[in-house]
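seq/struct pair 1
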Amino acid sequence: MAKQVNILLIYTGGTIGMVKNYKTNALHAFDFNNLQSKIPELNQLDCKISTISFDQPIDSSNMNPEYWVKITNIIEDNYNLVNGFVILTGSDTMSYTSSAISFMLENLNKPVIFTGSQLPIGDLRTDAKENLITAIQIATATKNGKPRISEVCLYFEYKLYRANRTTKINAEHFEAFASPNFPHIAESGVHLKFKEHLLYHPKKNKKLTIRKNLNNNIVVLKLFPGISLITIETILNTKGLKGVILETYGSGNASTNSNFISLLKKTINKGIQIIDVTQCIGGSVILGQYETSTILQKIGIISGKDITTESAIAKLMYLLGEKIAPKDFKTIFETSIRGEITD
């Protein structure tokens, strides 16, 4: 007889954990200790579900690296006790959070599935039930006695994505997320279908390592026509700055203005890492494809390739926290370490 699968549900906050008092129309936190009595469909899954909730549920707008460390601490403490994790967070910052967790969990060999909802769990037309039930089902899925998923994923509206490839694209539709540069890795329809060739497979017999030293002394600098040099200079001279996500045009292009290039060069010479990511929803940075990016390549700008801004932020915080040697930083950032960029 197969051993029962144990799943730990971690609730940090967010819409999915809210229920409405229909007398007052006020929202209050859902008691996840009574989860299976409130959602009896979960009893059809052959698994045991335990829950841990933050003492004070947080809105996704208040999510930060301290809470990311708190989530990884819970995973670390329970890693050998359960078969998989489902993490409920607010959807607004879910791509940031799940991307960060993917970098913080090195040699992960169990499923960590993020989900949430656009409507509260008690709402008449809620998407919370389906998202939650299927996320748990995915976390329990095995093949030949091993988990089908061994990475950090995000499940929303019938699709399972690699978490560090996602971005939130809609605040109103149930289909809130997209993975513009990497296909979804599973789909929930009449059957739950996994795309085996897309699944991330960790190195065998490697022990889980938790990376908690994140350095958030970074900034996102989004270029736009007419941005002033004074604004750019002020941002790049921020005290304690260690890294910059430079959101450029198209395939990594930026102004060739000599004063602008000089500012970037001075910043790099101070040991500050600058990552070039595209403002486009889909596509990749290809430094040197056009003259307007060739000069960026020459001064040592790092190519983010087809990474999302959310994932670039998380990866930059992670690598800065690891104190990578400056000579190696560019090579490591431009290499896929959790499936976050296309090799």
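seq/struct pair 2
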Amino acid sequence: MALVQIENVSKIYRTGEIEIAALSNISLSIEKSAFVSFVGPSGSGKTTMLNMIGCLDKPSSGRILVDGQQVDKFNRQKRAAFRGDVIGFIFQSFNLFPVLTAYENIEYPLVMIKNEPAQKREEMILTVLDSVGMLDQKDKFPDQLSGGQKQRIAVARALITQPKLVMADEPTANLDKTSSINVIRLMREMKDKFGTTFIFSTHDPRIMEEAEITHTLVDGKLS
């Protein structure tokens, strides 16, 4: 069974009497442990697609199944619980808490979502910090880290709950070339090590080259 199954999905945004079709009758499937990118010009529907799969929004029509669950039928509370159990997120602006250390940023979802005991949290955090090569930076605050280091912490935070799926919206947009390449390679390593599926929206040709599957969106349609 595919990890993600999208069936005839459309998303219409309405502003007064104006309708904007962000996605139009999209159907596709994504397998477990895949490395998939959605590409296309700005406004093509990439972020909308990630929001649908990531249970941050619901389609206007069609069905979305993630890990065998029809998530478009979930209410807001159930979507939030499902995201905490199954999905991790990586953002182009990192979205780290500036008042928390790297260690504490990674710890946050274990406290707020998983409610793991302190000893188990420590073991999990040190393991994932080591995996992303940031163990020696664990006590630093975000403003003491480079862009590439911040994104490594963001990857670690996304993986700490052991999700089956990680959504990454333009994850290299704010990184220089070297940092971008390093972060992409890191995510490939994490995919191979943990069997996590990574889904990206991107303009970055380096991610397009690394992706196993690329879907191109133009005006809300697959092309």
